[in-house]
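Key result, reporting period 2: structure in, sequence out.
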């Protein structure tokens, strides 16, 4: 299995920025597109964005487009989520995940390996 560990969450004021990291301790990290998802209390886990295996393509949910940027460094087995212009609605636990099924990038079932999540809280 692919082991993933997120870090970088915390408390920020609206309009602030955070960068989340997701480190893979398993092999073949570069073989997988990597996605970011988030889940607020009482809500379903939702798609944030995804990055291709070589970091050349990205796709984002409309809710974060223009504010969030995903990047990856395969040499470091790490994927990042840069979050700018944060809003209170962005408050959630953020997860990284490895995509193992071809098809829609925003479908949770296409991701088989998940990190433990890191809390992001945005205050007004």
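The corresponding designed sequence is given below.
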């Amino acid at each position: 299995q692919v082991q993933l560990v997120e870090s970088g969450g915390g408390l920020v004021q609206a309009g602030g920025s955070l960068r989340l990291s997701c480190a893979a301790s398993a092999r073949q990290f570069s073989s997988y597109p990597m996605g970011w998802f988030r889940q607020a209390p009482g809500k379903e886990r939702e798609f944030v964005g995804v990055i291709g295996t070589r970091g050349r393509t990205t796709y984002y949910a409309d809710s974060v487009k223009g504010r969030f940027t995903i990047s990856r460094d395969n040499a470091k087995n790490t994927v990042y989520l840069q979050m700018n212009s944060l809003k209170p609605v962005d408050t959630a636990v953020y997860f990284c995940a490895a995509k193992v099924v071809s098809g829609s990038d925003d479908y949770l079932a296409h991701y088989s390996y998940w990190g433990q999540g890191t809390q992001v809280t945005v205050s007004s």
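The mean pLDDT is 95. DSSP finds no helices and eleven strands in the chain. This case is discussed further under Risks and Mitigation.
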